[in-house]
């Protein structure tokens, strides 16, 4: 557990030092920790647990998820994530990874919707199977290029809805996603806000989720990232695995096309 010891030390150092540092140097420091941890991201533990969960027969039907079709055919995990969200003929709709995972857990394993969506976001002492499964599946696309299709009319429609949501202003502050994410070099406190309309930024943002979040001690999915952004936007909390999240994810994923996928990553 040498790596873990190093990690805890670094996390503590980061926590203690951050408030006193200037903005740029905080960013530099985070980059340094990231480098130090590059071969020891705690997300590996989530990936390993996810692989085990994927391969374990469970649920009323006592089967594993190994025959789940993530879009490239039953059982193909490698490269599936860089092509999601996508249209699935068997359900006649566009699904993102977490919707598809929920579908497989219900249809293959016989879980109820409630069981299949239990604990989407883990906390200390209450780990999330979903975060682990997503970590495993996404890791199997590491190093591959984002390649999301909008060729099917429903894929195109999901993209357009996502785009609409991105620019839709509302809530107590009259914010849209675009308020925080369509300008270069914008910041809130210490955080740099990616301009998602800029290709390079969009790629960097999308290809680094899920991520082990040092501040939360958990691997967080894109689903959680968006949930948190909707909260910052003072919008109502979106339902887990809703079509709204899938549409926004489609917009983000398509904008990241061509970027090399590199997650689960490590973030503040
Ligand atoms: C009030 C400002 C605000 C609004 C509105 C907002 N976000 Fe964010 N967003 C943030 C902050 C802050 C971060 C975290 C930046 C960091 O930690 O580096 C973030 C991070 C992100 C990231 C991850 C970027 C990365 O590189 O890790 C994505 C993707 C994102 N937001 C998408 C959205 C979408 C889509 C919406 C609309 C549903 C939205 N945000 C609305 C403030 C906002």
Structure report:
- A hairpin with a 2-residue loop joins strand 3 (186-188) and strand 4 (191-193).
- Mean pLDDT is 89; it is low at 1-21.
- The longest helix is centred in the first third of the chain and has 16 residues, at 2-17.
- 34% of the residues are buried.
- The chain has 268 residues and is mainly α.
- It has two domains: 2-139, Cytochrome Bc1 Complex, Chain D, domain 2 (Orthogonal Bundle), CATH 1.10.760; 153-267, Cytochrome c-like domain (Cytochrome Bc1 Complex, Chain D, domain 2, Orthogonal Bundle).
- Strands 6-5-7 form a three-stranded mixed sheet.
- The protein contains eleven helices and seven strands.
- The structure holds heme C.
- Heme c 1 binds at residues 68, 104.
- One of its GO terms (molecular function) is heme binding.
- This is SoxAX cytochrome complex subunit A.
Write the layout of secondary structure elements.
Elements: H1 2-17, H2 23-36, H3 43-55, E1 86-88, E2 93-95, H4 97-107, H5 113-116, H6 129-139, H7 153-167, H8 177-181, E3 186-188, E4 191-193, H9 199-206, E5 211-213, E6 218-220, H10 222-232, H11 243-255, E7 265-267
Parallel strand pairs: 5-7
Antiparallel strand pairs: 1-2, 3-4, 5-6
Helix pairs in contact: 3-6, 7-11
This protein binds heme C (HEC).
Active site: 229 (cysteine persulfide intermediate)
Organism: Noviherbaspirillum cavernae
InterPro entries: Cyt_c-like_dom, Cyt_c-like_dom_sf, SoxA
